[in-house]
């Protein structure tokens, strides 16, 4: 992503990583929103603590920037447990996973980000590890190879994925608890922003915070990022961080009133103008905007559905009347686009 892609919910740079680290809530009590998930996690962690055992394995599912990594850290922190962080793409062989698992200390929390991208062979090793805290290691080569069982220290696996649907059932079933993170509402985002403003020592008023909250794609990561740009703007222009500063700063970065970014807009305009409002299949859409279908499905679409710009129908994605209005376009005729080939539903 480029630097000016302010509303890309995916993590941008090393600088952002450090910034996020500083703002990350450290406990469930500090974690804003996701009330249901928070309550469920609290119960799971408390019960485990009372029985002096490691908490069940936890799967965190949801679009980027909603707090999956943050929650994984909280799970470790609340239980006073060490945390080991890894990710699916880093585990390309069963041996990579065996090395991690065999070096865990008792009670450790193992976080595997993007767990849907782990190698298949590692996935199978993980089934046994999750269930019995045991793995089988192959020793030797060829005909003389034997498998040697190895006991592991009890651990809690926290997996994160933007695509829960891509996980094989045997893996999904081995998690004791799956948390589906939802986009945040504006009141929650205002809380996230208020907290971040205090931590940044930024003097910003309520209406300005509300204005940012309405434009951050329901995503705390984007909220914090926009807040940073507003801080820059107020600094450079020597003014207060008020609504005018927010509007000027966000207009400068091309973040519209609904918080749509360039890719969101490209997807919407493609559906509206090239496909007459839809329905259009996911793959056709992805090819038309030059983006991977996975990104459209996991990142763009959930947000557009959530704010009511598109609906998913059995025949494909369709623009809603609100979408036509937002883009100031008029639908030519009721059945425009209906005769287009539908490739992939
Ligand atoms: N509930 C929350 N309350 C306060 N801040 C939050 C909350 N959730 C996320 N944040 C902020 O948003 C930032 C991004 O969150 P996090 O890194 O946990 O997202 P993620 O779901 O892991 O994203 P990705 O899928 O890209 O890995 C954090 O640094 C944190 O400051
Ligand atoms: Mg993360």
UniProtKB/TrEMBL annotation:
- Its principal location? cytoplasm
The cross-references to Gene3D superfamilies, in alphabetical order and at most eight, read: 1.10.8.60, P-loop containing nucleotide triphosphate hydrolases, Winged helix-like DNA-binding domain superfamily/Winged helix DNA-binding domain
Quick one: where's region Head domain (RuvB-H)?
257-345
What top-level branch of life does the organism fall under?
Bacteria
Q: Which residues does Mg(2+) bind? A: 69
List where in the cell it is found: Cytoplasm
Instruction: Write out the catalysed reaction.
Output: ATP + H2O = ADP + phosphate + H(+)
Q: Which InterPro entries match?
A: AAA+_ATPase, AAA_lid_4, DNA_helicase_Holl-junc_RuvB, P-loop_NTPase, RuvB-like_N, RuvB_wg_C, WH-like_DNA-bd_sf, WH_DNA-bd_sf
Report the function annotation for this chain. The RuvA-RuvB-RuvC complex processes Holliday junction (HJ) DNA during genetic recombination and DNA repair, while the RuvA-RuvB complex plays an important role in the rescue of blocked DNA replication forks via replication fork reversal (RFR). RuvA specifically binds to HJ cruciform DNA, conferring on it an open structure. The RuvB hexamer acts as an ATP-dependent pump, pulling dsDNA into and through the RuvAB complex. RuvB forms 2 homohexamers on either side of HJ DNA bound by 1 or 2 RuvA tetramers; 4 subunits per hexamer contact DNA at a time.
Which NCBIfam families does the record associate with it?
A: PRK00080.1 (NF000868), ruvB (TIGR00635)
Q: What is this protein called?
A: Holliday junction branch migration complex subunit RuvB
Organism classification, top ranks? Bacteria, Bacillati, Actinomycetota, Actinomycetes, Micrococcales
């Amino acid at each position: 992503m480029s630097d000016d892609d302010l509303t890309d919910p995916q993590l941008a740079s090393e600088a952002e990583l450090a910034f996020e680290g500083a703002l990350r809530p450290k406990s469930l009590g500090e974690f804003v929103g996701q009330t249901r998930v928070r309550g469920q996690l609290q119960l799971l962690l408390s019960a485990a603590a009372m029985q002096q055992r490691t908490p069940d394995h936890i799967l965190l599912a949801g679009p980027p920037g909603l707090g999956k990594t943050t929650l994984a850290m909280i799970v470790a922190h609340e239980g006073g447990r060490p945390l080991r962080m890894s990710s699916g793409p880093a585990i390309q062989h069963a041996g990579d996973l065996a090395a991690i698992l065999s070096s865990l200390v008792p009670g450790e929390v193992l976080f595997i980000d993007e767990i849907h991208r782990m190698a298949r062979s590692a996935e199978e090793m993980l089934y046994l590890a999750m269930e019995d805290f045991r793995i089988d290691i192959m020793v030797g080569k060829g005909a003389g190879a034997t498998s040697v069982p190895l006991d592991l220290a009890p651990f809690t696996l926290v997996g994160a994925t933007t695509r829960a649907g891509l996980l094989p059932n045997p893996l999904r079933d081995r998690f004791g608890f799956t948390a589906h993170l939802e986009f945040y509402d504006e009141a929650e985002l205002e809380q996230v922003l208020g907290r971040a403003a205090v931590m940044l020592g930024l003097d910003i008023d309520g209406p300005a915070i509300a204005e940012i909250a309405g434009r951050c794609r329901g995503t705390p990561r984007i909220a914090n990022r926009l807040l940073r740009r507003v801080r820059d703007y107020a600094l450079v222009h020597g003014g207060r961080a008020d609504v005018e500063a927010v509007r000027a700063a966000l207009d400068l970065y091309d973040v519209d009133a609904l918080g749509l970014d360039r890719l969101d807009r490209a997807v919407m305009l493609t559906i509206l103008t090239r496909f007459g409002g839809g329905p259009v299949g996911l793959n056709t859409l992805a090819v038309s905007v030059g983006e991977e279908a996975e990104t459209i499905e996991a990142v763009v679409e959930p947000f557009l559905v959530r704010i009511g710009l598109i609906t998913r129908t059995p025949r494909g994605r369709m623009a809603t009347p609100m979408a036509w209005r937002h883009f100031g376009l008029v639908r030519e005729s009721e059945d425009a686009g209906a005769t287009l080939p539908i490739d992939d539903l």
